[in-house]
Amino acid sequence: MAAVAGDMSAVRAAAPRRRRRRKLAPGQVLLGAFLVIAGVIMLLPVVWVVLQSFEVTKDQSALPPVWFPTHLTLGSYRTLFSAAPFAINVLNSVVVTVAVVLGAAVVSILAAYAFARLEFRGREVLFTLFLAALTLPSQVSAVPEFVVVKYLHLLNSQLSLIIPALIQVVGVFLLRQHFRTIPTELDDAARIDGAGHLGIIRHIMIPLSWPAISAVMVITGQYIWNDFFWPNLFINSTSRMTAPLALYNLESVAGGGPLGAIFAGLSVLCVPCVVGFIFLQRRLMEGIGFRGISR
Amino acid sequence: MRSAKPLTETGSAAARGGATASSPAAAGASASGPVDPLAGPARRGSQRAGRRRPGRRRGVGRRQPLTAYLLLSPALALYIAFIGIPLVGIVLISFVQWDLISPPHLIGLSNYRAIGHDPQLGQTLSNTFFFDIMTTAAHIGLGLGLALAVTTVRSRVVRYWARTAIVTPFLMSAGVVALMWSYIMADGTGPLNYYLHKVGLSPPNWLASGTWSLPGLVIIDVWATIGFTFIIFLVGLQSIPAELYEAAAIDGAGPLARFRRITLPMLSPATFIASATAFIGAFEIFTWPLIDTNGGPGIATQTVLLYIYRDAFQNYQFGYSAVVSLINVAILVSFVVVMGLLARKWVHYERV
Questions:
Q1: B242: nearest CB among A14, A245, A292
Q2: Which domains does chain B have, with CATH numbers?
Q3: Is pLDDT above 60 for B186?
Q4: What count of other Cβ atoms lies within 10 Å of the Cβ of residue A58?
Q5: What is the mean pLDDT of residues B71-86?
Q6: CB-based contact, B12 to chain A, within 8 Å
Q7: Which helix (H) or strand (E) holds B134?
Q8: Mean of the per-residue pLDDT values for chain B?
Q9: A125 touches chain B (CB under 8 A)
Q10: CB contact under 8 A, A38 and B166
């Protein structure tokens, strides 16, 4: 799995090797140009939105688009944070994301340990049931899930976004796979030192599978932070919405909404993703890569 | 918890472990002290540890159903409440008429009979399949192409740039992506059509055209989610050992032959995962049609999940929406089964 982390040596090794190192082959130049352009195309929409958010109203959505604005302003951001309770919405997103990431990690670690290390009746059956849930996206049962959440009196509360999300089947599965790679001799050694199961989890499982655990946390966090489907289903008062839903609400309910504020909101939500990716790249690739390889 | 282990469990563990001198019957007795050197220090830990019989084998301490269920209980409770019950719930709700306000009425198979004369279901399904097949094909083609290019290019800077740029949209909220593209694709005010006109094309009014709105959503979807497939392929490519290529090169295989004989077969697990996730993910497409086209014009971009959502939460036909949900589940399950069978034939799991 180390190679998954985008390790450059592996990339180079995988590529058909050429003998000449110094001189650039024309193929390489073409390929490089293609990739640079592909990257520009992928990022251009994001750049356009972020630029718009800093432009004065008359430059926003001007045609031809103003790529090099002469006047920059924070006016759109002021509108966004004064007209709508957007700061609260961002805070909601943060609270929900942090709660789910931590809670789901605990739930997954405990379950993964039981599946990886303990023997009990029904282990295989239960694990197969968990695995089966991996193949169906949770949205397929949105209607009955709405009913469950309604009867638990969680509708229109942030708990409706937190509690059902605490079970991340992918997390249980990936961590169980990882725990199984840790030699059981280490458990025995810890037990000799008087550790119980929680001690083994804390002092052996967690430190030794930290890369896997943090990868799971990153993919869970990314999913929850960005989720639109469930908040849209469960939350209807503006002050309890998470940020992406609040922005959609601002756009659709306020009859088109203040354009600048929407662009500012989109930027507020885009930028952490880009910055986060640069820092968490490795974990994220691992998290996704695990899923790809683990079957 | 660790000291709550019942003696009988220890006994049976010893029975399975068999190799030590102690028999299960003697398990409770502490007389067989020195059999297992590991057991000695273990006693130090707790008072009751002394009751455990020594002579434990390596597997001991793992057969603790109570502890196991305790550790599993949060996951299990959540699984039952939010995965198990909803899945069973689809079936139950499909037999009732229910608006969620008044109590449900049992109406037998009426909801199922209603499928026959549903004017929207057919087009909704064909929209979803069209969208899905287009995006999955684009995912496999583009994702593989980009991953190959990134693995082959030698400049570190280009590689980093391309990787970051390709994956970034995947990290953004579907809501954000949908809003963003509704401005970009807007006819007359958006930059996309402005530039397409500039280069001499006459682009359609993407999100409002009966013919082009669905392909428009495909473009948005591919832009937003190609990063995932790209990573899967990238990881797959990196796990192919370089020796294979070297050996092939020595045997005189050209680049094309190496691609066909090494890359493609070695990549088959990644291709399998990528196409399965792309297909399943695209089938549940919801946010783009909701925000960008509202299913329209007419129902030109109404997809299965949007239809279920509208039936349940706008028309309050929970029973009928459950039947459509069942159709949705049936399609996905049969897809998974077919893919599983195909995988058996086509996917190389051989690893060097």
A1: A14
A2: 2-51 (no CATH), 65-114 (no CATH), 121-346 (1.10.3720.10)
A3: yes
A4: 9
A5: 93
A6: no
A7: helix B121-152
A8: 80
A9: no
A10: yes
**CA nearest neighbour of B197 among A58, A48, B205:** B205
Identity of the residue in A4, A28, A228 whose CB atom sits nearest the CB atom of B154: A28
* Residues of chain A found within 8 Å of residue B270, distances taken between Cβ atoms: 292
Beta bridge partners of A55: A72
Note the helical H segments in chain A.
8-14, 26-54, 75-83, 86-117, 123-135, 142-151, 159-162, 169-180, 184-192, 197-200, 206-208, 210-226, 229-234, 243-253, 259-293
Q: Taking 70 as the threshold, does the pLDDT of residue B67 lie above it? A: yes
pLDDT at B51 > cutoff 60: no
- Residues in chain B within 8 Å Cβ distance of A193: 45
Q: Over the stretch A85-131, which tens digit does the pLDDT of each residue have? A: 889 999 999 999 999 999 999 999 999 999 999 888 889 999 999 88
N residues, chain A: 295
Decide if pLDDT at B254 tops 90. no
* H helix intervals, B171-238: 174-184, 191-198, 213-238
Of A130, A34, A6, A22, nearest to B163 by C-alpha is A6
Is the model's pLDDT at A242 over the cut of 70? yes
With bands split at pLDDT 50, 70 and 90, how would you rate the model's confidence at B238? confident
Which chain B residues contact residue A219 at CB under 8 A?
A: none
* pLDDT in the model for residue A146: 92
Helix (H) or strand (E) holding B346: helix B318-346
Q: How far apart are CA B348 and CA B84, in angstroms?
A: 33
Q: How far apart are CA B10 and CA A284, in angstroms?
A: 42
pLDDT at B12 over 60: no
pTM here? 0.81
Q: Would the pLDDT of B57 be above 80?
A: no
Chain B residues with CB under 8 Å of A159 CB are none
A126 within domain boundaries: yes
pLDDT at B47: 41
Contacts of B267 (CB under 8 A, 6+ apart): B144, B233, B236, B237, B240
**Which two three-digit tokens encode residue A271?**
């930028």
Is residue B93 scored above 80 in pLDDT?
yes
Residue A16 lies in a domain: no
Q: CATH number, domain at A126? A: 1.10.3720.10
CB-based contact B111:B319 (threshold 8 Å): yes
Of B112, B241, B222, give the one whose Cα is nearest residue A15. Answer: B241
Query: How confident is the model over A57-82, as a mean pLDDT?
Result: 83
ipTM of the complex: 0.83
Structural domain including A167 reads 86-259+277-293
Answer yes or no: is A111 within a domain.
yes
In this structure, what are the phi and psi dihedrals at residue B106, rounded to the nearest 5 degrees? -75, 120
Domains contained in chain A, number: 1
- A3 CB neighbours in chain B (<8 A) are 238-239
With a pLDDT cut of 70, the percent of chain A lying above it is 85
- A146 by Cβ neighbours in 10 Å (0-12 / 13-18 / 19+) ranks as buried
A18 pLDDT above the threshold of 60: no
Within the 31-60 window of chain B, which residues sit less than 8 Å (CB to CB) from chain A?
A: 38, 41-42, 44-46, 58-59
- Position A230 in a domain: yes
What residue type is A260 in one-letter code?
G
Closest chain A residue to B224, measured at CA: A42
